[in-house]
Amino acid sequence: SPGRQSERRIDLSSFLFHGLGEPHPAGASLITRFEQRPGMVRWTIDVPMGVPGVPGTRVTRVTRELSLVPSARGGACRVRYTVASAESVRLVVRPLVALRDFHELVREPDLSDRYCTTRQGDLVRVELASNTEGNLGGRVNLACGVGGASFAGEAQVWRDFHYPHESRRHQEDREHLYSPGAFTGDAPAGAGLEVEIESWAGAFEDRPRTTTEESRRVADARLGGLVSPLVERVPEPERGVIGALVCAADQFVVRRRHEAGFRASIIAGYPWFSDWGRDTMISLPGLLLSTGRTREAREALEAFASLAKDGLIPNCFDNATGHAEYNTVDASLWFIHALDAYLDATDDRDALRGRCGRAAHEIIEAYRAGTRFSIAMQDDALIAAGSPDTQLTWMDARRDGVVFTPRYGKPVEVNALWVHALRCLARRDTGRAKELSALADRAARSFLEQFWSPRAEALVDVLTPEASGAWRASGETRPNQVFAASLELSPLSVAQRAGVVKRVMSLLVTPMGVRTLSPSDPGYQGRYRGSLFERDRAYHNGTAWPYLLGALAEGMLRAGGFSAEARRAAIGLLTPAAGSVLSAPAGGCVGQIAEVFDGDSTAGEAQRPGGCVAQAWSVAEVLRVWLLARGK
User: Fold this and answer.
1) How far apart are CA 376 and CA 535, in angstroms?
2) pTM for this predicted structure
3) Is 292 left (phi over 0), alpha (psi -120 to 50) or beta?
4) What was the pLDDT predicted at 423?
């Protein structure tokens, strides 16, 4: 009640500050409900408004909605407060700004020189000062879109926010944030109040042009169109999880600035990754093709094809400069796999004749002739790559000069993908079919001779070159062999696929993912925790990855001839990880599947999620193979 003696201040937010053991202020204790729907989350906050200790306490209800909406160049968000009260109320909304890379924290003791605030009418812009170290041109625009709240530019610095998750990672865990001012709206008793604050990047004129309601209707219609045909393919009890997976998949699809405008791409994971080539190509069939988003699938393929260099598609992009980095041996082969899946879904001959098809053939020729990072076909028609100091496969953890999973030489999944890629192009390109098929046959024979272990009835993980010129077979049991079991055009027979599946199921599988190393190995790390060095050591040495369940389940289907029994087993394997979308595990993210889980679980402590709280290929592979199991 502004201006009255009975005026009370009620804080609606809570933060953790260094040195305080409890959240402050206590706004979180007033939350009575949390809801999520595509593109929006809502908190319901019930505020007691009567005089403490006096009977007849009244309640003011505040709802806070956070929505993501499209803007002219990328995205924007809106925060809407709706207040229903019998009392007169004043709502003060104070934005806090960092403008930093997601790997950094703002630690300067004095933020007065870090930010510049400018205004143009009712629009407010906060940007990094030109002399700020590491300035990437960051800026954020703010405006009141609904409710007529006024902005007062009283700048403040809020200090010593505490991030416990970073403490557990042995990282910097304190940050200072800047506030350029506050938006204030008033309403008389009984009138209610609605205030919506918009925030977007880019220029003032890039402000979102649609209302929240319009954006929400469009998003609901679009997602409904994606979900409806898919849920019809599964039994009634599975429809909820399929719908949730489709909504989760949508959150990774973004647009990257490209030479010809913006093109679709896939964020590998939140909050730490951008769009990686390997992750995009592995995720593309599940996120885009399974959901019928073929136009965006082609955009993503063309975007990466246009950046191919020396037969390699980008591994990732430098966060500061945006420049492409090419240190990967498997991403280019996954590109051919994704292109083949796209052609299966669309029969788009133009893509094959155009940039995507040219890139695929350039990859094959570069691998045959030899390219960067010592990637080259050997005399036996298999692919070798790297050195003791490189990490070119997806098991790429390195910290303080230590490569934790040195897989240079001939990795098993790379060569399974190589045979698969040759056969994919052979069936698409009639002019080169005979040549490519013959090369694939040579590589397949060498693959079976060198990788298949009759004693284990499974595959060797990697063949490492020795000074003598011989190739030493790894004695570790790792999950990379599951890709040879899952690929349609694998070098393996049906019986060999079954052997690989049996080996992985007996030694590596967990409810939430497939372990990256057998627990019997001396280097096994069963818990993903501790410092970054300790986590990176465990990352591919025991930690379980949900996305590997997809390849393992597909291997089950192919080994079982897509029988009813194989389909049931595949869906049973995927069910626990899929269930985390509907009911997030402790420490997990609502509506998503984490990047990794502990390899171990005990009666007292389950597998904890770790890494990125939301990972594209975790969602993509569970969704893709679930639908595959319910398909033909």
Assistant:
1) 32
2) 0.93
3) left
4) 98
